[in-house]
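Quality-control log, excerpt.
Job 1 of 2 completed; input and output follow.
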Amino acid sequence: MNPTNRSTRIKPRPEKAPLEEPKTKGQIVGGWFHEEGFYRDVATRFIAGSAVALLAYLGAVGLGYVSKPPAFAVLVLLAGLVYVPTQLLAAYCLFKKRYWRTLASWLTSLSLTCATMWLGLKFWVTNPEGFDKQGPWFWTVLLSVPMIGGIAMVIMRRRIK
């Protein structure tokens, strides 16, 4: 066999890709927060985890493994778990630089937010058993402030875009 008749494969020489500067961990994690898919994944996993935990808890209560807690204790816990993070998020949004154009309105909102947070935490921490004895106005303020804060954040977010 003649070596010149044998077909040889031509191997292309690819060009070397330009090297990017290595990113720090902070830049990598910061990039996640700018992607819409990140928030969709977090929300999906939170809802799925909450559904599984709720079903497991209801199964445990139904089978008698866990005693049924009083409804009022569950209501107070849920109100606190929704109230405090919502108020903290509203306060964080107030301190962004682009909102300082209307300083007077934001200072008013911030002072009302802090006052209602203090009121709710004061009664919740010092008197959890008598939480229902505060009257209907206390519950109206306690449950309406997180909703108003959430609506205000959505409105301001749309205004910025």
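Job 2 of 2 completed; input and output follow.
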Amino acid sequence: MAQQQYIKHLYEKEEKSLAEIARTTNLNYRTVCKYALRDDWSEDKLPNLEPES
């Protein structure tokens, strides 16, 4: 969780570009995008796939 917060800080507070963050943290660009742009980190609810009776 600390890594996500650090990336969000770099993006929002220090106004670093996503590509620059990816280079400096040695993470995939898509991972950096996900971490920087996501606001809600609560677990996503999966749909109930059980058949209805």
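Post-run check on job 2. Residues 2-37 form one domain.
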